[in-house]
Each structure stands twice: as structure tokens, then as C-alpha cells.
Fold these 2 entries.
Entry 1:
Amino acid sequence: MLGLATLGFALNFWAWALLSPLGVHFKAVLHLSSFQQALLVAVPVIVGSLGRIPVGALTDRFGGRIMFPLISFATIVPVLFIGEWGYRSYGALLVGGFFLGLGGTTFAVGVPFVNAWFPPKRRGFALGVFGAGMGGTAISALTTVKLMNARDIHAPFLLTAAVLAAFGILAAIVLRDAPDRVRPSEPLARRLRAAARLRVTWELSALYAVAFGGYVAFGVYLPTYLKSAYGLTQQDAANRMAGFVLLAVLARPIGGWLSDRIDPSRVLALAFGVVACSALLQASTPTLAPTGTIAFFAMALALGAASGAVFALVARRAPASMVGSVTGVVGAAGGLGGFVPPLVMGSVYSRYGSYAGGLAALAVVAAGCLLFCVVQSRANAVRPAAERA
């Protein structure tokens, strides 16, 4: 079940990230500004983020067996729309990208689905493995431009639609919910309000907005950044983005595994410290080999580990019947965290011809998260002693 959920997450994320590798192509063909290009690749992110709130709550109610194939089949529609008609105009691309965001909501399906199959001591690692499905963005980065160059603009979209259809059929036949999963008895709106009243929901939302949001932001905007800042070709930039994504994917289960063994707040503190240092270093736009490459790869590892650690905390601290609802809110915050930075980066570069301001802002935010996690870690160290007393 974990393998199927991870596969479904990866394939839907592949669809979710289809526009990012083609951002440079659409900018040239449709004569877009830097801000328009940034908006184009960011639109699926915000829809996939906000959509996680109701999808997570619906998963609590109906289970992943129904929601996984449902979301996969629904995502085929915008994929085919963009591939057949939407690519011709900027307005149509924005509409298609809006509905393409459905693919990003599968995260809120998979977390409660996987959580129900594993005991508490193994959930951090299991959710980290599931989270590795975000590597679907790497599939998009490695294949989309190559397929377009080898065939035509339709090819990557037709292939993705076929793969989603195959998974939807497989999931409908094979996928099963955990027999002992906790089913909520309250209506959806009441459960969402209850999740919003939990302090843990907002604490983890803030951390995930930086951790996963940073990953998403660079995952969709890195090709544009590398082309503008270093003059790389479209394919070279896409390949380097794939390397960034793969490192983050590999680090996510490690972050979850570490969080099963030590205080997740410590894992998060270390990760955000690395992000702050790497972003500050990259703000000076150093030479790409080796300094810039090291900075981005270190950032990828740290963001991936932090993303895994956050959902280890969700599994620990959220009530069992509300994991989907809390996941939806936290996941939405992460996606929204990825929506804002590309727009900021595009605006900063359009005005100043440099990305330094955007990267410096990331360093400051990561440092703030580091401070919060250090305080939380100290509080967690005191709490068990108080409970024993």
C-alpha cells in the first residue's frame, strides 16, 4: 500500500509540474515578461495547495482507496486541455494550470492513508518514503523538454495523461484502506474548524511553508533562475533542477527516519540552519562550479529532510481521526509557501536585475524557523521530565 501510494503521489506530481520545465519555452514563444512566466509556473502550486484542505478532509471521510483514483482521473482533464489547446495562449495556459493544480492535492490523500497503515514508531519513516513521491517533479524536469524536442509540444502531455489513467485503474482495483483506520463522525466543515483551532496545525503550517514551500519554489523556478543568472540552456537548467529535486527526495525519508529516533525539532533546527547559510551564500551569485552547486545541493538536502520531519510531527501530535484534516491545512501552507517565492524572485529580478534580495529574504525566514525550533526542542526536553514528576 505504501508503494502504491508513493507511486500515485509521484505520477500526480509529475503532472502538477509539467509547466515548470516549459516556462522558458512559453516565455519565448508567447513573449512573456519575467513576472508572467513566474505566475504561469506558480498557478498550479496555489491551487494544489488550497485544494489540499478539502481533499484532506474528504480523505478522512472516504479513504485513499476512493480519493487516489478520483484525483488521478480528474487531473487527466487539464493535462489534455493544455497539451491539445491550452499551449496556444497565455490565458488558456493559466486556466489549464489552475486545474492542473488538482495533481498537487494527492499529498493530502496519501498522508492519512499511509499513516493509518503504520504504528506510531514507524510513521516518520513511512511518511518520509511516501513524501519521496515529490520526485515526480524530477520526472517532469528530465522528460518534458526532451519529449517536446524529440516529438512535439503534445507528447509530454499525452504521455502523462496515459500514465495517470493507468495508475487510476490500478489504484481502483488494488488499493485498500487500513482495516483499523479511524473514521470521523463529524461533518467536514466541523472537522476543518476543529483542525484550525489546534495550535499544532498552525505551528507546523509555518514550518512546512518554509520547508516544502522552499522545495516547491526552487522546483518550479530553478530552471528560470539558472538561465537568467548563469545563462544555461533550457535543457541544462532542467537537468540541474532534476538533481536538486532528487536530492530533496532522498533526504525526505532520512528526515522522517531521524525524527522517529530523536526530537523532530532538533532535525528541523539543523535543516533550517543549513538553508539559511546556503541561501545567504547563493545571494551573492557565486560561480556555479563549485560554490553555487554546493549551495543549492545543500539547500535541497536540508529542505527535503525538514519536510520529512514536519510530517513526523503531524503523525505524533495530530488526533488520529483528524490527520487528514490537519495534513490538508499543513500541506496547503507548504504549497502556498511555494507560490510566493517565484513571484518575489521574478519581481525582484525584473526590477533590479539580480536575485540577491529574494535569496537574502529566504535566509532571514529560515533563520527565524531555526530559532523557533531551538525553543521548541528545549521545551520538549523539559516536558517529559515534568510529566514523570
Entry 2:
Amino acid sequence: MKKTAMVNTGDIPTQNPCAQCGAPIAQPDWVEPGEGRVSYLWTCHACNYRFEAIAIFDEPAVEYPPLAA
């Protein structure tokens, strides 16, 4: 099952090479934004290898509303 968190689809990387065999992967299975980072879960359909890649930013990738007091 593929599920993508609420992220602008224009910002999702495509054709990422597999960390094991180098085959291109069309899109990540999961995208999880966080404060100053975005995590991607990739699955290679050529060799069945799964791996996570994390993009780290100087500024938060997502604006979070303040928690209620």
C-alpha cells in the first residue's frame, strides 16, 4: 500500500536510484515532513530493497501551528 503524507506533490523527488542496485525508483512509498527535514521511504521493485532517505533543510519544511495551551 502506498501512502504519501500531505506534501506538495511537485516537491516529491522522482527517479531516485536504488541504494542497493542503482535502478531508478519512480517515487517514494512514503513521505513524512518534519521540522527542518523530510523523510522518504523508497522500495526498489528491481531488487526489493527498502531504504529511507532524509533531506535536511536550514528552515522547517512545514509550518506547524502552535500547540493549544
